[in-house]
């Protein structure tokens, strides 16, 4: 069997401080490599079902997941169903979906606790109201898309017939979600999401650290929701922002291809 990283160009990380931190991370006894998905491993696409990790990242994660004392995790706002089908079909990773609402830790063995989402009746009523408001707004904005999740719903504007209406449509969705008491509202890239859950990616990173007990954790993300995850990292850990948004992370890369190069470099260093 060929090593996936053998088929790719040599990784190039040009930020010396990041490269030095990657070297230290690669030498850790136990290493957790946790990534956001959309905007971090995958470029944005119009069809939300079609996005996939860039080849370099996918190959590096495959290599890392096969190394001893090394755990790969994806922590995403996506549903667990999407993560299973599109991100980790071979079940090599730890997964958290719905912004920390769902977990699949089954690679750690039968004693690890995986959990889905079960809503109480009050939560279900609230979610039904949010779904109804989202459907109404989709009907008023041709090209808009509703994405349904076990604990929430997302209103997408990337495919609007009138792209200039996006900001106003997102603001309307925000206002309508705000009128429903108890929803957690999460703006994102051409999306307005809400959830009846209270979890966030900081809780997800913490849960995975507790489960794996790593000496070093890498977490990378591109959006506001990822800041919760970046904020819980310790001084030896490695926080990376993908793209231009404000961040608490000490390191930054431009896009998913650059993130793929970082992961390939890490895989090469840890294999060595
Ligand atoms: O936590 P993430 O893995 O970053 O997921 C955040 C949301 O990403 C998805 O929406 C974004 O990507 C779509 C596909 O590229 C794009 O069309 C959309 O405009 C973006 O907002 C996903 O659909 C959401 O469920 C995630 O919560």
From TrEMBL:
UniProt superkingdom: Bacteria
Cofactor(s) listed: Mg(2+)
EC number: 3.1.3.12
Gene Ontology BP term (one): trehalose biosynthetic process
Keyword rRNA processing applies: no
Keyword Ribosomal protein among record annotations: no
EC primary class: hydrolase
Keyword terms of this UniProt record: Hydrolase, Magnesium, Metal-binding
Gene Ontology molecular function: any one: trehalose-phosphatase activity
Pathway: Glycan biosynthesis; trehalose biosynthesis
Catalytic activity: alpha,alpha-trehalose 6-phosphate + H2O = alpha,alpha-trehalose + phosphate
Entry's family note: Belongs to the trehalose phosphatase family.
Function: Removes the phosphate from trehalose 6-phosphate to produce free trehalose.
Protein name per Swiss-Prot or TrEMBL: Trehalose 6-phosphate phosphatase
């Amino acid at each position: 069997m060929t090593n996936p990283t053998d088929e790719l160009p040599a990784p190039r990380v040009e930020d010396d401080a990041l490269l030095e931190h990657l070297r230290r991370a690669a030498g850790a006894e136990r290493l957790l490599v946790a990534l956001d998905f959309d905007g971090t491993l995958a470029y944005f696409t119009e069809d939300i079902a079609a996005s996939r990790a860039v080849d370099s990242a996918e190959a590096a994660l495959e290599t890392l997941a096969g190394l001893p004392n090394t755990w790969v995790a994806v922590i995403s706002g996506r549903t667990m169903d999407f993560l299973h089908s599109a991100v980790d079909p071979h079940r090599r990773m730890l997964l958290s979906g719905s912004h920390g609402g769902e977990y699949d830790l089954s690679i750690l063995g039968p004693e690890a606790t995986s959990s889905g989402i079960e809503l109480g009746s009050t939560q279900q009523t609230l979610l039904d109201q949010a779904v109804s408001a989202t459907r109404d707004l989709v009907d008023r904005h041709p090209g808009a898309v509703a994405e349904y999740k076990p604990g929430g719903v997302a209103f997408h504007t990337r495919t609007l017939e009138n792209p200039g209406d996006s900001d106003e449509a997102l603001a309307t969705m925000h206002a309508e979600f705000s009128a429903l008491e108890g929803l957690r509202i999460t703006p994102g890239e051409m999306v307005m999401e809400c959830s009846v859950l209270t979890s966030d990616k900081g809780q997800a990173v913490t849960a995975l650290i507790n489960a794996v007990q790593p000496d070093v954790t890498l977490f990378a993300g591109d959006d506001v929701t990822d800041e919760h995850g970046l904020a819980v990292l310790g001084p030896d850990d490695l926080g990376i922002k993908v793209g231009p948004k404000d961040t608490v992370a000490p390191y930054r890369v431009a896009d998913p291809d650059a993130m793929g190069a970082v992961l390939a470099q890490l895989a090469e260093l840890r294999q060595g």
